[in-house]
Amino acid sequence: xxxxxxxxxxxxxxxxxxxxxxxxxxxxxxxxxxxxxxxxxxxxxxxxxxxxxxxxxxxxxxxxxxxxxxxxxxxxxxxxxxxxxxxxxxxxxxxxxxxxxxxxxxxxxxxxxxxxxxxxxxxxxxxxxxxxxxxxxxxxxxxxxxxxxxxxxxxxxxxxxxxxxxxxxxxxxxxxxxxxxxxxxxxxxxxxxxxxxxxxxxxxxxxxxxxxxxxxxxxxxxxxxxxxxxxxxxxxxxxxxxxxxxxxxxxxxxxxxxxxxxxxxxxxxxxxxxxxxxxxxxxxxxxxxxxxxxxxxxxxxxxxxxxxxxxxxxxxxxxxxxxxxxxxxxxxxxxxxxxxxxxxxxxxxxxxxxxxxxxxxxxxxxxxxxxxxxxxxxxxxxxxxxxxxxxxxxxxxxxxxxxxxxxxxxxxxxxxxxxx
Length: 420
Hints:
By secondary structure, the protein is an alpha/beta fold. It folds into three domains: 1-90, Alpha-Beta Plaits, CATH 3.30.70; 91-171, Beta Barrel (conserved putative lor/sdh protein from methanococcus maripaludis s2 fold), CATH 2.40.420; 194-419, 3-Layer(aba) Sandwich (Rossmann fold). Helix content is 33%, strand content 23%. The strands form four sheets. A seven-stranded mixed beta sheet has the order 5-10-8-9-7-6-11, with no helix packed on it. The chain has a six-stranded parallel beta sheet with strand order 16-13-12-17-18-19, sandwiched between helices. Strand 14 and strand 15 (266-267) form a beta hairpin. The model is unreliable at 176-186 (pLDDT under 50).
């Protein structure tokens, strides 16, 4: 039974616009989020109609009269609830405005989310390609196309959507399954039953590989420091990793370990500091630079093992994005962050599952680029890594708070068990 709100708390007269929601808006908590957003932004509402789906697969529908004291407040409320899929019942085309400066959107541009979006062009709803958060929408009315584009890439004369009119969002609904590892929603706990979670991650990896999906690993240097590199190498050899994103550090210490048996100068098999071990990572970088790169080092026999070696031998693409603190760096490291970002953007187009392990900054960066439809699992000893992802809008991320080595070891074991 629907409980209607009390009469409007706003002073008369008020401005009103009707919006509608459809889908699994009850169990995905979309309807209460919309109603909260209306109230929290100074408005009020009247539920004109609510049809609740009777079965698990049945969609629900709500017609809401949004009320505000003035048009400016109402427009602000409508812009806030549009990201949850609330659309005005009076359909109109989107409003494109030509960019007048390179690298600058028009004022009042529509800022995208990572959720599936459409724009109305010439009376027809058009899917927005390359969905990504924190971008603008570039439209070509003549071709009837629309796509997301970053601010720095926009060029004078390109048509950019302004305002929320003629834009509709399809919020990612929670999984309809009642069992298994919950991918939808921010799901972070230090007391989560890790065995069950890792088993479900293994199952997802296997299903993704079997279904022709593409798995991205976003990895930090702790993978090497904790002695977990061998498990990642195994995942690569077994075809579970299709793409690797990392920084200079993971590749450097992986190569250091392959050449000297150390990571950060510490022998991984003994746990003791090597004499002059602090030099090893620099010597490793120097050797790779002298060889001309990682591939050349593999082909010449200089590099004979490790994660980067396995990537080269198994045709796993990788991208190394640099930072201000990098030593060297390795020849493959992209030091221009905008170039690295654009190449990452291009490489993730067909990614269907992303596993982020022990790297906060790279995880947040990649999370910003991925659409909400891509399942993401973030594994870190620090729960704030996953919380940051959720705060930035990557709400589809599930988090597992644990050390890297036991996670990767058990993951490899679970995959072996599933294969057998």
